[in-house]
UniProtKB/TrEMBL annotation:
Native organism taxonomy: Bacteria, Bacillati, Actinomycetota, Actinomycetes, Streptosporangiales
One Pfam family linked to the record: Methyltransf_11
InterPro entries: Diverse_substrate_MTase, Methyltransf_11, SAM-dependent_MTases_sf
Keyword annotations: Methyltransferase, Transferase
Family per similarity comment: Belongs to the methyltransferase superfamily.
Protein name: Methyltransferase type 11
Coiled coil: none
One GO BP annotation of this record: methylation
UniProt domain Methyltransferase type: residue ranges: 48-139
Superkingdom, taxonomy of origin: Bacteria
Amino acid sequence: MSERITGGHRVFNRVAEEYDAARPHYPETLYQALEELSGVRLKGALVLDVGAGTGIATRGLLDRGARVVALDRGERMLAVLRGRTALDLQCRAVLGDGNALPFRDGVADLVVYAQAWHWLDRRASIAEAVRVLRPGGAVAGWWNIEDADKADWLAALEVRLAEACPAYVGPALPGWSMPPIAEAMAEAGLLVAQTWVEWTRSVSLEGFLTHLRSLSYVAALDDRAVAELLARERAELVRVFPDGRLTVPMRVYLATGRKGPEG
Ligand SMILES: C[S@@+](CC[C@H](N)C(=O)[O-])C[C@H]1O[C@@H](n2cnc3c(N)ncnc32)[C@H](O)[C@@H]1O
């Protein structure tokens, strides 16, 4: 039985540097799918990046011409974002709660949750997103995950993580599925679309171990348990990838919800 972590911002504050160094970016095809499904062109759009963390999606959105307001409840995560992202007229960083957005009604073209919505309140978050969106704007949530169906070593890794981490959430749990953002958006009256985007990540063994360290359910362990887990995974992964370079099948689940033109 998984022990749910509450206060995601606190657990990520412990591993903010590791998070930014080792979490995968989002592929170009994700941003293309985001524009297609949401109907919002990123160039020139005002995007609220909620649960922005260290800014992995923020910088992806900026690179595609969006103006971004990055909001997070974690001070350490936001400090890393501020250090790694050019903050100017195109981008602002705000310490705040995604369940009570400190923004006026109707200002945003797009509200995004990159890997973040599952930390928020299901109803309050979407109600807030709908409030701050302009008519015709959209909400989007996405999650970048390892595709354990495509590689036996990944499926085995997930089983070991589930055994070692009481707060584990993922495909090794019976009945596990992606967070129900599409249902929450439909309940709020939005027009919902969903897709999956597949891609392949190439990452060093050290980078992948740092990535494991940044997972919330690993970060929630005590230092000794983290050290044991990483030592064991190093030994397992070296057996599969003796040259120290991992090829990781990935997929991104994307859901968007459009607000009607009448608002
Ligand atoms: C998995 S990280 C995602 C970071 C980033 N969006 C990315 O794509 O890498 C989840 C983020 O949600 C933030 N978070 C958790 N609860 C929050 C809340 N109530 N309001 C705003 N941010 C929150 C955490 O601090 C963390 O930075």
